[in-house]
Amino acid sequence: MTEPQIIGSSIPLPADAEGPMPTPATEAVADKVPVVSGRLSQGNEGYLSLVWRRFRRSVIGMIGLVLVVGMLLISIFADFFAPMDPNAQNISFAPPDSVSFQSPSGSFSLLPYVYPIVELPGKFDPVTFQPLTGPDTTNPTSLGFFVKGFEYRFFWFIPANIHFFGSTDATHAFHLLGTDKLGRDILSRGIAGSRISLTIALVVVALTTTIGTLVGITSGYLGGRLDALVQRFVEFVLAFPQLPLYIALTTLIPITAPSNVFLAFVIAVMAVLGWAQLSREVRSKTLSLARIEYVRAAVAVGSGDFRIITRHILPNVLSHIIVSITLAVPSIVLLESFLGYLGFAVKPPLISWGLMLQDCQSFSVIGSYPWILSPVLFVLITVFAFNALGDGLRDAIDPY
Questions:
Q1: What is the pLDDT of residues 110-126, one digit of tens each?
Q2: Which CATH number fits domain 65-76+188-397: 3.70.10.10, 1.20.120.1810, 2.40.420.20, 1.10.3720.10?
């Protein structure tokens, strides 16, 4: 059997294989490259699933997520998690109670006990001659979970008196972080203060994000004279020194104004001065997105500006906005704490972390009662949690 040849060519062709000729569908199946499954691809994976899979690899990001969720739950159910009444007064500047797993008889106990710190009779410091303090082993208080305590309203209308943890005997005070100058429990006030501090931060961030996104997308997409005017106004807002302006504006409201009115005014001042930076970032991304082919194609087929912005530009800017939100919350928390420390944020009877730090304005008080710096711990945990969450989201949304 001779090999077939093309007329006018000396190159022999391969012999025909026995059997029917393959159809185009058969060739497509045979030529199909197998999809590599594993760490790089997991089938028909959507964008959110891909972001979540990347985010789960970040240990710091997952720690931040757990802390943020925990803080939000504690702030929502603050009365349930607070072991003591935040406004109840006991001994001023009482030191933190000593928690031990040793029973009064001296044996190990799975149930923790609290031994109040008292002055040791007849014992003085040899240098300062101040009375020495120590745990009172004769008056222990057992701790437990889901114990009865002060009454409150669950979800603001259901009467309840069950608390997540605390003293099993409601008549015995329990101060894990000590008390302030008025004898109020610092831990309970810190848990209750998380409501105001986180509410201010979340509301301000929501307002600044909404205003900054709308102004940035509109200015960047429409361009022209409107863009020039808007950017001059943004630069005018950014030119102000924010901290002196915060203090000056908060002093305008009368001291006799109700606490809710004062709180609303503080939120409004922070929101008015905080949207400009995000608007510039969104505008720069909108300018680059407006030149992409699919946006030009949408314009060419006659799509309206609102549809182009909401369907093509906003989804691509949303990842940057989400990361900006998580990174802006710590800044607002720090700002509220600083203004509250100076007395320009929250007024009693409301409770916030900044208001609690007003007791730390004297070095002599800090040196004698260092536990009144405990509200700083709440601020540090919040700042770390949101920063860690923001870093993890940034790496997951835009790994490049």
A1: 888 887 777 777 777 77
A2: 1.10.3720.10
